[in-house]
Amino acid sequence: MRVSTRGEYGVRAMFDLAVNFGQGPIALKTIAERQMVSESYLEQLMAELRKAGLVHSKRGAQGGYELADKPANVSIGEIIRVLEGPITPVDCLDTETERGPYCGTPERCVLRNFWKELQDSMTKVLDNTTLEDLRQDACRLEVAE
Asked: What are the distances in angstroms from CA 98 to CA 13, 93, 94, 101?
């Protein structure tokens, strides 16, 4: 699986909201500038994240976006699934969109078992890493400088 700019920029925006969690809504323009992302592109991504319930938006002069839950309760896997779809390194593992399996005997396919192990490893890392984990990593990096 290759994470596209959709996933990368979405995680960056969510990370920005996590770092600033508790400070109220943050303007999209501010997030875009800090994360060096196109504001119009980010607007599309945030709309999807809002529909998925990961962020809340507020209109008006003091408006913007904020996380819908604490950073510790939002996994990177959730964000990636909203923006990229299922976490599948090959189509034969994709049961959500019914693109796979494309062979008649997936239970006897050695390669499918290998790809499944890879998928399980990726899922474990993405689902066990939260925005809070990344926020804490950022704090440690700042202290080290």
From this structure: 30, 9, 6, 8
pTM, two decimal places: 0.86
What's the confidence (pLDDT) of residue 116?
A: 85
Fold exhibited by the domain 5-144:
Arc Repressor Mutant, subunit A (1.10.10)
Tens digits of per-residue pLDDT, 87-138?
888 777 776 655 555 666 666 677 878 888 999 999 999 999 999 999 999 9
Cα 110 to Cα 104: distance, rounded to the nearest angstrom = 13
Encode 32-95 in three state secondary structure.
HHHHCCCHHHHHHHHHHHHHCCCEEEECCCCCEEEECCCHHHCEHHHHHHHHHCCCCCCHHHCC
Instruction: List the domain boundaries for the chain.
Output: 5-144
Cα 133 from Cα 125, distance rounded (Å) = 12
Among candidates 38, 40, 42, 39, which has minimal Cα distance to 11?
A: 42
What CA–CA distances, in Å, run from 134 to 16, 26, 48, 81, 141? 10, 19, 22, 18, 11
